[in-house]
């Protein structure tokens, strides 16, 4: 079969894309820390460039950007610590009481509907005491024991904690030269179109990240402030945690909602807490869905939220955690490509007849 030069060129690029995807799939565990560092480097590159333009050495700018990323991750982790430290002891006492209340109130109501449900309060209390009744020393002993049993997992986690900041620093340090070396790999006749295409992708991703950051900040203030007005003692950590995780569609909101409901049950022990959470999180979801995301994100990039969710799920299913990391950049590339294909189709003789 004789192929034209254009067909051979298209087939070559398809083979290159297939090889790249196959390598992503095969090397996913190894590539994970590098992709995490690459995503962070892309997000932090404007900050590093701004510092360099102000006369800072690039090594210092890269170091400050890495420190900023580390402090942000540490702050997110520390938000959850007071919630766990405060609520677990109360949870240990409240779960058996909740089971007794369910047997006394819910079981008769369900029985009238023909559903025979009764909880084993003694068994639940025993399970809670075993799972949540240990002291700090017991917990540390269990952690060390599991570390010995799963030493490779622990070493992998610790290795990534060291490797990601290191790779991030060198990416930020060498970013302009690295981008230029990658550009030199593009055939000269295609550089103009590739530069235009990647520039549009970069602008799209930048707008998405800036818009999403604004959504996160506004929702953090909303949830923390509204929960504080409702009288929640853990309003600040729960509210900020929920706001910061909204960039993960539905999962972030769901985790924050679960923490808020748990805090309401343990602090108030009445319908008031549940009602307050329902109002605060219901209004927050309306604010996010109908005001913030459409105005700050959707109108800027034209990427449907359903497309974002599908991309995250699809790439996650195909490539695991690496796929989730690559989902947003690849979705932006696909969106720009789709726009260009549509524009070419509307100018073609096939469309014009």
From TrEMBL:
The alphabetical list of record keywords is: Membrane, Transmembrane, Transmembrane helix
Q: How does it sit in the membrane?
A: Multi-pass membrane protein
| Any GO CC annotation of this UniProt entry | membrane
- Name its cellular compartments: Membrane
A Pfam family it matches: AI-2E_transport
Q: Which residues cross the membrane?
A: 12-28, 64-85, 153-173, 213-232, 238-262, 269-287, 307-338
* Gene Ontology BP term (one): transmembrane transport
InterPro entries (UniProt xref)? AI-2E-like
Superkingdom of origin: Bacteria
Query: Which family is it part of?
Result: Belongs to the autoinducer-2 exporter (AI-2E) (TC 2.A.86) family.
Q: Which PANTHER family did the record assign?
A: AI-2 TRANSPORT PROTEIN TQSA, TRANSMEMBRANE PROTEIN
Identify this protein by name.
AI-2E family transporter
């Amino acid at each position: 079969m004789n192929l034209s030069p254009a067909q051979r060129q298209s087939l070559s690029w398809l083979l290159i894309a297939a090889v790249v995807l196959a390598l992503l799939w095969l090397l996913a565990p190894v590539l994970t820390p590098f992709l995490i560092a690459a995503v962070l480097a892309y997000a932090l590159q404007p900050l590093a460039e701004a510092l360099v333009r102000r006369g800072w050495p690039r090594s210092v700018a890269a170091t400050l950007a890495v420190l900023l990323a580390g402090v942000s991750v540490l702050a997110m982790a520390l938000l959850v610590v007071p919630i766990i430290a405060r609520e677990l002891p109360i949870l240990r006492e409240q779960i058996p009481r909740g089971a007794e209340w369910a047997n006394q109130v819910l079981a008769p109501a369900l029985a009238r509907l023909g559903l025979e449900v009764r909880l084993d309060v003694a068994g639940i209390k025993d399970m809670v005491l075993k799972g949540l009744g240990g002291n700090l020393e017991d917990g540390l002993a269990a952690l060390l024991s599991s570390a010995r049993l799963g030493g490779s997992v622990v070493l992998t986690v610790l290795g990534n904690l060291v490797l990601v900041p290191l790779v991030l620093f060198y990416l930020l340090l060498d970013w302009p030269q690295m981008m230029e070396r990658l550009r030199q790999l593009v055939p000269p006749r295609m550089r103009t179109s590739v530069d235009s295409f990647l520039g549009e992708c970069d602008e799209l991703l930048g707008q998405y990240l800036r818009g999403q950051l604004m959504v996160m900040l506004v929702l953090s203030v909303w949830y923390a402030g509204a929960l504080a007005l409702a009288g929640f003692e853990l309003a600040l950590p729960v509210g900020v945690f929920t706001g910061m995780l909204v960039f993960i569609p539905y999962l972030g909101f769901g985790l924050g909602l679960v923490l808020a409901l748990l805090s309401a049950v343990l602090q108030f022990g009445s319908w008031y807490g549940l009602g307050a959470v329902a109002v605060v999180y219901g209004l927050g979801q309306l604010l996010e869905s109908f005001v913030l995301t459409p105005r700050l994100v959707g109108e800027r990039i034209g990427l449907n939220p359903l497309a974002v969710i599908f991309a995250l799920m699809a790439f996650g299913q195909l490539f695991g955690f690496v796929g989730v990391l690559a989902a947003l950049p690849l979705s932006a590339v696909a969106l720009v490509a789709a726009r260009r294909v549509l524009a070419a189709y509307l100018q073609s003789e096939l469309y014009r007849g």
